[in-house]
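Proteins fold reproducibly. Take a sample protein:
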Amino acid sequence: MKPPLLTRITFCLMILLLAIVFSSPIAYGAEGEFFELKVVKGDKLINICQKYLEDPQKWREVAAVNKLKNPDLIYPGQTLIIPVQLLKGTPLEARVSFLKGEVLVQEKAKEEWIGLKLNELVKQGSRIRTADKAAVEITFEDGASFFLRANTTLGLITAQKKGGFYTARKLFLQKGNTILRSIPPSGARSSSELVTQNAVAGVRGTDFRAAVDPEETTRIEVLRGAIELMAQKQKVEVREGEGSIVKKGAPPLKPRQLLPPPAPVDLEPIYKSLPISIKFTPIEGATFYRIMVAKDKEMKDLVYEKVIRPDEKFLLVGIDDGLYFLQSHSIDDLGIEGIPLPPVELKIRINPLPPYIEAPAREAEFKKKSVTFKWLKVTDAVNYHLQVAVESAFKTLIIDKKDIKETEFTTENLEFKRYWFRLKSIAADGYEGLWSDPQSFTILPPPPAPPLEKPELGKDEITIRWRDLGRGIHYQFQMAKDRDFQQILLTQKVEKPEITLPKPQEFGTYYVRTKAIDADGYAGDFSMPQSFEIKPPPPPRPIINKPEIRWKEVYVSWNDLGKGMRYYFQLSEDAEFQKLLLEKELAKPAIILPKPLEVGEYYVRVKAIDAEGRAGDYSSSQSFKLTHGIPYIPIGVLILLGLILLGL
């Protein structure tokens, strides 16, 4: 991706302008950072500078440091000192040590922005840009590093090793937020310089935060060591625990103390439900708090970040189960952020969620003593815990069953009164999630001979409910034909934690899920899918043909219901099939029975069973009678007997 020509020209002019504005005579010698060499016969200052200096045109500075009245006159055996900053350098290796999201790099003299990868080397002269919700850390071979938050652009102008004992870095922060961590001074010396559009920060063995906002105001907060901040030819020293700002066209503000961090109040050992609400202690002088939640203790992999008022609660609406780390900063009236709170563990275990309850409906009334409870399957649940009580506090339990493996349970012989019930899911490790919202139902006494009422049929609709997350929260509901929601059938926003849908016509398994959306429109992740199944109807009733009575047998047949169908046949002495003479499972739609020995009327019926084991209703019964009389003789036998008699 190529930036517009105007943007590239602007950036180049900005670097040139910064070099002019912030260049000034360097005060060498304060810390002895010099390179010494002995002059040999034939040496000239100009030749020495061409050999050792990054910019040979700075020979005058070498002459000034050595107090040479005549730069053309140097003598063999004379010792010259050269400031290490002027020496030629070799590139200091810088590598991507952390990366999240989209991070692009533009190398020096190239127009294209390309994606950075973990462990990739970053060359000096490169520009780095982080997208929304992205972050990157670049670590140098000496252990120093800089970390870029989302929506930040930074240029690595130089990163060099000089003289074998000195490292120098120069960074340009165009916009956004960065954290620089330097290595404390040791045998090897180092210095870094952070440049913005209106300020320069000289760094040595220092950890500090730097930010540039859209108004081009530079903000500096020192966490360890000290820095020298310069703008408009004025310098201030910003010590550990202090911060300062530089507004466009203004000198640095006098450093002020960083505010202490607010502490979370009454953190729970583990959070089992959403939204998570956390209050923080008041901090004098703070106008806002920045609250961050990350997956790691170093607070690099942020999953949520929000700026709140000190009297406001921090609200987490959507977040996965896991161990997180919480950190807070105070923000004063100038926007200077305070000392960070040491990361605090935040344990979240929302799953397994309470099951979505399908039946009974809220405030349902039943005219029978048995009630069937139905709910949707929770993906990571292996058992369910059902409680039924005679009051909403669940002190007097009628049912307390923990080992329910299916998504349905029927209770019998309940008394005529009002009841409350609730459900929770149990994970494979034995962890029990939260209870569902309590719901009530009533067993009504039978009325005195009422007129018949039209039945309330539930075959055309399905109702799905979920946990109420509180005031100001609405929901997005989805139904799909697959667990990955690639074939979405319905997406709908609802205000209440329930929805009633027409029952799908197509047989199979359907998946549903929801997500919460707060008043600001910030949406959490979708919940784990739950499912329900629409099953096909049982086989139809067979139609039995009239039984055919033969010499020694009875032939019974019925209509063939198709491939894969089996049949269950019954023969009885009575029409109610209480006195069964024969029960048999058949693969074909017919049976040949031995003729019963006793006279009388016999009854037969049959039902179909499909390949899935679903059995339909019995057919209407057919009967046949056996009486005393001429037994059935085949016509051929009768003719033969007649011929014999005539012959006699």
User: Anything to note?
Assistant: The first strand starts at residue 34 and ends at 38.
